[in-house]
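A quick aside before the break. I want you to see a complete sequence-to-structure record at least once, exactly as it would be stored in a machine-readable document. Don't worry about memorizing anything.
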Amino acid sequence: MTVTNEHLNGGHVCQGGALFTLADHAIAALMNQHGELTFGISNNIMFVGSAKEGDQLKAEAVFVANHHKIPSIEVSVTNQDNKLICHVTGLGYRKSVNLPTE
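That is the input. The structure line, written in tokens, reads:
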């Protein structure tokens, strides 16, 4: 994600909500990768750096535990210099149904 003027808060750094949304997309992609409908039930975000306009951010998600019902994930959001911007943890709940195809 490229940080644009629309992502900035009053302090002229990227809003926490924009960072959380990026991380949440990474969580959803990993939790749902095998086609089983999984909902987020708990997330936590820790801001450790600031992102400014023009920064290129990426979110990398990894399983802590790929449990069949309650998966746990960690996400690192970093900038183009590999500087950690925030760390997010998430828990999900897997339903016993496939993801909708449409």
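Two observations worth writing down. The longest strand covers residues 84-98. The chain has one helix and four strands. We'll return to this after the break.
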